[in-house]
Amino acid sequence: MDISSIDNQIKDIEEEIFNTQKNKATEHHIGKLKAKIAKLREESEKRKSTGTKGKGFAIKKSGDATIGLIGFPSIGKSTLLNQLTDADSRVGTYDFTTLDVIPGMMKYKGANIQVLDLPGLITSAHKGKGRGREILSAIRNVDLILIMVDAQHKNHLKHITEELYKAGLRLNQKKPEVIIKKTGQGGITVNSTITLTHLSWKTIKSISSEYVTNADIIIREDITQDQLIDVFIENRIYVSALIIINKNDLLKKNELQKRINEIKNKGWKVISISARKNIGLDELKRSIFVELDIIRIFMKPVGKKPDFTEPLILKRGQTIEDVCRKLHKDFKRKFRYAHVWGKSAKYPGQKVGLYHNLDDKDVLTITILR
Fold first, then answer.
1. Domain 296-368 part of CATH 3.10.20.30
2. Are 68 and 121 in contact (CB under 8 A)?
3. Which of 160, 163, 191, 245 is the right S-S partner for 272, CB 3.0 to 4.6 Å?
4. Per residue in 37-73, pLDDT tens?
């Protein structure tokens, strides 16, 4: 089956969904149609990407975390990158000033945060328009997405988030808690640990039958049809995102606040700035640091004072085992015990093991076998 044939099938199914009356009696049928579309789109994307290897952006990740800066052309991304980092990204007033990925390093509270200025995203980017497939591929590997929109253009955010969604990116979401265990026989069995308000048993089986014949499915949260389909389409990326309203100096205060409230009411985290006039950038840096969920660990050599000048950067939830990996390849093998001072300790200098969870600004001493 060629790409045009797949695309025609998708259009036919979309038309059938549009013409089907939405009610309890038809929800399982609509769910099955949505699952068919998701499968066809995945197949279409695989075929379109065949032969494009080597044509993407060559990006070497560095630092403690990486964030991607995206938006429509001429939105001010390059100006912001230059303000936040040591980069020298070309700035112009015409579209597509940036034709490649420009990296820069933002230093904040001891962390080195890599910022990638990506070429402008345009409508139908997920179909490959305007190097869209390459841009969206690059953005799948970052730790945080910054979506920049113009204060004077209300539709920017809607268009960009739609492109990201169609490309398989799920912003500010966690992977649904669903366990699928394929079996050799017995058909599809469904169990849930909670009450489901969006899905009936019939709808779950109808969607699942597009992907598995025999399986035990356990659902641990109240998910929707689209979330269940995402579980089966395994290439979904779940990543945090911040919305940046740029050029806030061009709107009156009440107009700007109205725009901010509109975005917040849709569930987005939003920061208002003027990259050109350096307004709001301190708040933006703080927000980036918080969204990355970074913690700083200060090492204290045995018998010496802590080093508060260069913290070790970890992600929240990481342990002393992760510290050992960062320090030296032999540290885990030779580890005996550690002492920790700070929020994660029950008392100052608590003796702990490899799997102790650390917290921000903890002070840590590791003792190893000599």
1. yes
2. no
3. 245
4. 998 888 877 777 665 554 556 677 889 999 999 998 8
